[in-house]
Every structure is written in C-alpha cells, then in structure tokens.
Amino acid sequence: MNRAKSLLPVLVVAAFLAGAAGAAGPPSEEGWALLSDAAVARLGPDPNSWAIELGSACGFNGDECDLKTFRFSGVHLDKAQGGLVFAAISELSAEYSLKAGRAASRSPRFQLNVDTDGDGVPNGNVSVYLGLVPASAGEGGRLSTGNLLQNRDSRFDLSEIGGSKEGTYGDALSLIGSLPVLGVQFVVDGGWEVREGQTVLVHSLKLNDIGLSVRVPPAPAPIALE
Amino acid sequence: MHLRITSRKHRRFQFALTLALGLLAAGPFPALAQLESPAPAPPQPQGANLAASVSADPHYTRTFGWTIDKSVTPGTWNLFRGDSGTSQYTIAVTKDSGTDAAWFTGEVCVENNGPDATQSLAIGIVVLYNPGGGWSQVAAAAVDVSGNPLLGDEESHCYGYSVNIPGASISASGHYMVGANVSISNPQGSLPSPHTNEFLLLSPTLVHNAITVNDTNGGSWQFSASDSVNYTKTFACDADAGSHGNTATITYDDDQTPGPSDNASVTVTCYALSVSKDAQTSFTRTYDWTIDKSADQSSLTLSLNQSFQVNYSVQVNATHTDSDWAVSGSISVNNPAPMAATINSVTDVVSGPVAASVDCGSATFPYSLAAGGTLSCTYSADLPDASSRTNTATATLQNHSYDYQGSPTASGATDFSGSAAVSFADATINEVDECIDASDTLQGSFGAVCAGADTPPKTFSYSRTVGPYSTCGDYTVDNTASYTANDTGATGSDGWTVNVHVPCSGCTLTIGYWKNHAGFGPQPDMVTPLLPVWLGTSGGAKSIQVTTAAQAVGLLSFTGSNNVFDASNGINKLYAQLLAAKLNIANGADGSAVTSTIAAADAFLANNNSTNWSGLSKAQKAQVLAWMTTLDNYNNGLTGPGHCSE
After folding, report:
1. In this predicted model, what pLDDT tens digit does every residue of B407-416 receive, in sequence order?
2. Interface ipTM
3. Which residues of B touch A65 (CB under 8 A)?
4. Could you say which of B22, B245, B436, B506 is the most buried, measured as most Cβ atoms within 10 Å of its Cβ?
5. Alpha-carbon distance B503 to nearest alpha carbon in chain A (angstroms)
6. With left for phi above 0 and alpha for psi between -120 and 50, is residue A61 left, alpha or beta?
C-alpha cells in the first residue's frame, strides 16, 4: 500500500462536490478526507484504476489483539458539519471490494456522528452496516451497496443514541431525523478481531450529491482531497 | 585184484597196464567192450599201436550250509533330549546237516608205439562202484584231449580229467575203480583200456564246519553248531538321533570266505519341549506440574477514566518421574512328542538377574504333560529400572533311561528355554496426574491440560482491561492461576499483581493513544467526551473547532486543516500535539506546565493553518516547532504531571 504522500506527483483524489442538498448554512469548504492509515492504491495500468485502500490489523498475543499495535483506517467527511440533518440525507452508498480478510466486527461500515443535544459535538454514532446485521458486507469482487437509505433491512445500529441495535432506516428516521449529523465516516476497523487483518478497496462513496472517486490528474500535481 | 586205500596220499595209483581187448570184453567195462571186434583178428595191419595207463585221486567232502538271522528289540525309540534307551540285539545262526560230494581226478597217459600217428584220439573215463553186491558204472566222462589231440610215432602224452560221483553212489564203505577207454580211428595194432585199483572213500572232508560271525556293532562270535547270542546297545538323545543300521556276517573258518549276513536297524527320534513366551512391560509415570503466571505489566499509571489492556500469560508445564517398572506375560510349554513328558518345574528369570513369579494355575509339579499338550503359565516380575533385558523361561524335564523292555529309570534332567526381549519402548504407561484442570481468577477455567496430548509447556494468553478509575489513588489488581491434578489432587498456583497508580494531578497521553481511543476498533471513545476542542483561539479566522472524533483522528494523523497528510508540515504537527495536550488537560491532567505555550500556539493558529506553513519565515517555523516540541514533551510526560501508561 502506498501512502498518499508518496503519490503526490501523480495522483489526485477528487471528491465531486455538487452541494450539500438540504444542508442548512453555507456550503462547507471541506470534503472527503483520508483517515488514519488510509492510502491511495493503484490497481493496475489503467490510468483510472485507483482506489482508496483501507486497512485494519493488529498484532495478536495469543488469541488477543495487542491493542498497542492496533491500526484502523477510514474515509471521513466533515462536509456535514454545520447543519446536515439526518432526514436530509437521501442517498448513502459505497462501491468497494474486500481485498483481504473478511468482514467482521461491524467493519466495514458507515458511521454517522449525531449531535443529539445541539452543542455541536456528537453524542454518539449511528452505524450503517453494509451487509445484514451483524454481518457487514459481501465478500469477493467489487460490491455496490446501493442506496442504503432505501434498504428495508435492519442495518441501522442506533444503540449509541438510545435506539435499537438492529434498527431500520425508518427507525433511524424516527429517532434522529431532525438531528444534525456532524460527520460521516466509511470505516475499516475490524482488524482487532480478524487475525489476518482486513483490507478494503473503496472505489466510490456517495452522500447525497457528495461523491468521492479517485482519478488521475492530467498532469502531475500535489495530491489534494477536495 | 583188491587194493585197500588207507590214506589220501596213497590213494593215487598208476597202473601201466596194457590190457587185451578180450580181457576188457570179459570185465566190467561194457563201453570198452563195444570196441571189441566180433570178427576173428585180421592180420596185423600197419597203423598205430597204443599203450595207456590211468591214475586216479579220490575226493570226498561234506559241506555245511549256514543261515543267520539278526533282530533287535525295540527297533524304534521316541525319546526326549537327555533320555536314553537300550535295545537288545539277537543273532541266531543255523547249521544244516551238510551236503556230501565225491569225485576222482587223475591222468590218462597214452603212448603211441607207431608206426603211424593217431587219428581222432578219444579217451573216456568211467567210474565203477561196488557197494558190496557187484560192480556197476556210476559215472562217465570224456577226457579233454584238445591240448594234444594227435600222438605221433613214439609220442606219449598224459591227459588230465575229473569225474564226479553221483550223490546216490557216494558211500564211505563202497569200492570204486576208475577205468579209461582210449580209441582212435586209424588202423591200430592195439587199443589200451587201463583201470585203477579199487578205492575206498572212507570219511569225508568237512567243509564250512565252523563259522565266525562278525557284527558291525563290534562283536564277534564263533559257532560250530546252530546257536544264538544276545547283546545290547544304548542310544541317547540327541546324540544318536536317526537310523542305526547294523549287520552281522558269517565268515567260514576253514576258507575265510564270507557267508550270508543279516541286518537289523534301530531308529531313534529325539524330541525337545518347546518353550515360548512373551513379555509385556509397564511402568508408572507420575507427572509433576508447575504453573507460572505473568503479565506484560506489573505497574500502571492511569489517568482518571483511563483503562488499560494488560496481557496475561499462564504457562503450565509438567515433568515426570518414572517408577514401578515391571514385566509380565505368558509362558507356553509344548510337548511335540508322541509320549507324555514329566516336567519338574517352570521358572522365569529376567537378566539382572531378577526371578519372576510363575503361576501355572492348577498344575502341580512334577507335571505330566500329555503328548501334544501345552502347559500355559503366566509370570510377572518387578524391575529396578527401564533397562533393556532378556527374559528367559525354563521348563525342566525329568529324563529317563529305558531298558529294552521299555521300563524307565529316572536319570537326570534337561532344561528347555524360551526367551523374550524386555523393552520399555512400547511399555504400557500407567500415568498418574497426567492431566490437570487449570483455572485463573480472572479468566476462569482453562479446561484440562494433559501431558502428551497438549505437549506441555502450554501457555494460555488473555487480556484484561484494567480501569477505568473515577477516583485518583492507588489500586492493585491481583490475579492467581491454579491447577488441580486429576489423580492425586495435587495443586499449585501462581499469582500476578498489577499495581495501579491514578495520580490526582492527572497524567498525560500521547497523540497515538488519543488516535486509538477515538471510537474506532474495540477501544472506547475517550475523545468525543472531551470535545469540542479549539485549535486556535475560539472564533479565530483560521481556528479549527474539533467536534468529532474522526476529525480529531485526522488532525492527530497530520492531515492538518486541509485534509492532506503531510507529516513534514510543522503546523500539522502542532495541530496534533496541541490537540493531544488539550485532550490531556480536558481529561484531568495538570496543564500548568504548558499554559503559556498553548496560549501562544492558539493565538498563532487563529490566523494560520496548514496551508500557511510553506510561507512562514524561518523564525516563525522555528517557533511553531518549538511549541510543538514543548507540547510533545508534555504529552510524553517529560514535563507536566507525568506520563500515563499506554
């Protein structure tokens, strides 16, 4: 895996911002950001064959993960900060593939940071699982979640904010529909349970019209996450 | 004319007589009489004029015939090794009454007085016998003249002859006379017909009258009449196993020629008891277990509400001591012979030596083991160690000497043995305390651990979270691992104590700690409760309000204000250390050591962010890095209240 810093001359990770639909307040200047050990990886010779590689791993001491060695990664969107309420999110989807390991321990997942008391700080997270609860995702080749908000399965873990661990989108809408979502992450952090680690390639993400894809700039330029 | 022959030397007489044909015609020679011309004598022609004489030597013998019969009792012996048997041989000879024979031998001498040579010379011999009532011819024979068939003028020659007397005409008291008839085919002047005087045969010469019998077993006996002899010979096993042929042969004493013979044979079959056995070894293996508990931490300094993962390890190990080595098994004594065997004892010894205890059940000794039967026993012995040894079972047979009638006499004993290797390579192991149940006051039961199956040492590893503590102070976390052995109930234990210090002035944690305690993975989110945190004075133009843990992770990971990872950006590093310092202070750490630094850094970041780094002067960059270093020292516990365990 190549860290993004080593790809500065050749790669731009671009997020296409068309505006935060339904968002209150001015559009944020911020978009998707690599989180922790996330990196940009080249998949092949095709100039557009790039992805965000998210990994999680841990050194095991017997059957236990030695947490001092635990690593995780993700993609973080702070664009919601400032007023995106949950009900205003109409689309949440990901296109990804599981490169190594297996889906486990709620990973990979979407994580929505919900502010329940209006102080501008999240009071808990709503996890949106990619597969059926508790399984997280299918394995194998490239997978597309579709719009998770249109899924009727019990993919919404609302337990951190007083709801069910196996809630539906309707449950979530009832519980936090009017509450601001301060941040959204696509997280891979199950390596503490999966001995062989987890590696997920993210090909695209989409929150409403805020999309993320990876492209190669026409000319060398500093890496930028827009 | 009568002549009495008194001795053999004087029996031979020669008469040089020329007899006239007329005399012969009147005498007892009818054959010669046929040569007599019935016509008157013609004038004497020219031809051969013969003269002849005859001599006779009488012979009279009585030859005895012998038969021999050899036998042995018994002719077959079935013996055990060490036994002996004596057979009796019998040699019987039978002499018949004898067979008489008589015959005459002598010469007929013929002289040709010429003038012509003889033609077709022929000589006949006749034997006349007078048992007392008159003479009669009892035998005749032609004389072989081929050696000199023609006699020239004035030539003479003697022709030998032999003529047998028929048995019916042999008598010691009879009178015998031998005559010769000489004839030729050419004209002759005279044809002689001489004869001998009378003979008496008297007593016969005895032939094969006595014998000597020589036996290939070494004996020699003389016989002159029918008789028998006995002798014995003893056969022992195994030396004499096999067939023993034996021949007795007659030799005639008078001429030392061999006569008839006969043989007898003794067959000796030797048998051995077959002793077979096996050897099963066993010993006791007693396990001695140890338990050792350890952890990667023995003392911790934690901030309020901080928890810490302690990795524990419990190792159980076993050594063993072997004892009670023993060998046991079965012994089979088989009798392959067609007769019963008398067994005096069955013993068993393991090299060392160690005498084993033998149990043959209901059998008592001496024990008669039937033909083809098997005596089954068991044995056992305790041994001092596991050395390889040899185990030998011995059956002692009572030997006997048998006479020729089969009557036994006890005579010595013979041992028959069978061996088996004593090896502990595949011994049955009687294990004691081979398993334990291990448990831990924190982790609970580890389950059973067994030597062999679990190949000790076996280590159990687990983690436990120490903390969080909401009150400062000192704490101890005690933990004891223990085991109980499965057979004897032996126990053992080992403990580990973690001393926890929660300083009332707090302690500091690094940016790595805060990054890994932001709600990702299994660890609790320690960051969000401490938010929001301003980097830069509150409301500053370029100040950043950190409101989410993910945002904090990004800043702690040097992605700065523009979400671009750049660890060489001093402002990015200042963001990370400043955020960690403020989280530490928010978490209860005394921040007085960095108050002024934080104030200065906040003032700077109110108007500068990551994108300004490259445009800063050297002095400004040095100042940023100095703040960063001060905060780094604080977060690592080099200044301030000290470092928390991570």
Report:
1. 999 999 999 9
2. 0.80
3. 463, 522
4. B436
5. 22
6. beta
